[in-house]
Amino acid sequence: MRRIPKTLFGQMLLVFFSGLLLVQLIGMWLMLDDRSRLNYKLLAEYAAQRTAGIASVLDHADAYERARLASSLSVPPTTLTMDVPWSRGPLDSSDGARAFAAAVEQGLARPLSVQVLSVEQISPEQLDFDAHGREFHRSGHGPRVGERKAPLFARTFLAQVRLHDGTVVTFHQMLPQIAQDVPYRMIALLLLLLLSVGLLSGWAVRRLTRPLAGFANAAAGLAQNLDQPPLMENGPLEVRRATQAFNAMQRDLRRYLATRSQALSGVSHDLRLPITRLRLRLEEVDSPSLRRKMEHDLSEMDDMIGHTLDFLRAGSDAETPVMLNLDALIDSVIEDMEDLGAHIERTGAVRQPLRLRANAMRRCIANLLDNARRYGGEGLIRVTVEDSATEIAIRIDDQGPGIAAADREQVFEPYVRLESSRARHTGGTGLGLAISKAVLESHGGRIELGDAPGGGLRVSLTLPRAG
After folding, report:
1. Beta-strand relationship, 446-451 and 78-81
2. Which residues of the chain have pLDDT under 70?
């Protein structure tokens, strides 16, 4: 099963070619079988006509000339003798024997008695030739006529014809076996037909599946580039309808995201403006402790609004990708985290710039390092960068309590916080990992959680080099 093509083009071509090859082989076998049967029938009819002709000649000849004529006409594969009496034993009752006898009777100049005997009824000494066909001769009636090997003959008829004066002529007629020669011209013709139909089928299948391949590629790249050119609406009717639906969906998504970006801008302004007014009015509050508590609540509201807007913007393509030095971005984020008290050790580097959305990628890495700083305790945070020909891998290992394997998928959901290790006094809204995942997926990457060596949490980021 591993060798079966995985693509639609390969599977359809395999089905067409296999079916065509099977039909061609069956057709060639039927043609060869019909050809052999026809040749055998023609040879049998010719042998019956020759036997009838010889019998008619001997029937009209004088008695003293018959021996000389019989010796002259006894030429393989038709040999004859007049020394065997009329057989009274059982006759050959096969369909071939009856057909041969009927053909001989039909070819006689005048009606004569004809019967076909079984080969075992007459001994080779009576017929003056080896029953296996190794040689033909007439003992006491003349020289050896010739030699012939048995494999050239597969069907033997022993026929007797009684002439009008009672003389019995016994014919030993051997027909060639079915032809064993290879019909090269027929095989070449069938191969040419197979090749031409195969090429035509391949072209037709490719023409039908090429729009589907483009459709699949466009669907796979839609998440990374919503502004990609629309698909060409060609191919069969069903493919054209699917392409039209896909292009319409892409236009609707683009329109929806544009509307959402405008709404986000409006929400950001409308939500932060009341918060700003409340902060200005805090100056009129006389109690310092009450003022600090209200200021703290307003800061939390502002952070929640900011994180929510960041999450909603994370998967959008409003920011234009640029060729970015990822090493410099990582170093900049590490410096910010170290200013907040984190201890970070970094190894590895990125050889070449990548095409990324700078602000979104900075937010992604900053969220992950901030989580490692908050929940990793005072331990060392290790950042490892590995660059290969196809992708870039970034690993962030902390020395915190980690996350249980059963909860590693759940923490990527918005607003999910694990109370056992993510206490509220540490801050956060439960959107950090969700934002990082959305940013990475918008770049064609992925994020995974695992166990760090020696304990703690390992966050693995992967970015394709051809993003």
Report:
1. unpaired
2. 1-2, 6, 8, 119-155, 175-182, 223-225, 260-270, 307-318, 415, 417-430, 467
Among 386, 383, 360, which residue's Cα sits nearest to residue 373? 383
* Cα–Cα distance for residue pair 49/53, rounded to 1 Å: 6
The region that residue 176 occupies, defined by phi over 0 for left and psi between -120 and 50 for alpha, beta otherwise, is: beta
- SS3 for 363-378, per residue? HHHHHHHHHHHHHCCC
Distance CA 444, CA 440 (A): 6
Question: CA-CA distance, 364 to 203, in Å (whole number)?
Answer: 47
**What number of CA atoms fall less than 13 Å from residue 150's CA on the CB side?**
7
Q: Which spans in 348-402 are helix H? A: 358-375
Quickly count: other Cβ atoms within 10 Å of residue 266's Cβ: 10
Give how far the C-alpha of residue 425 lies from the chain's centroid of Cα atoms, to the nearest Å: 57
User: Are the C-beta atoms of residues 130 and 153 closer than 8 Å to each other?
Assistant: no
Give the model's pLDDT for residue 310. 67
All structural domains of the chain: 13-119+156-176 (no CATH), 222-318 (1.10.287.130), 319-464 (3.30.565.10)
- Quick one: tokens of 66? 């018959």
Q: Residue 448 in 3-state DSSP?
A: strand
Task: Please give the single-letter amino acid code of residue 369.
Answer: L
Strands (DSSP E) contained in 82-167 are 113-117, 135-136, 146-147, 153-162
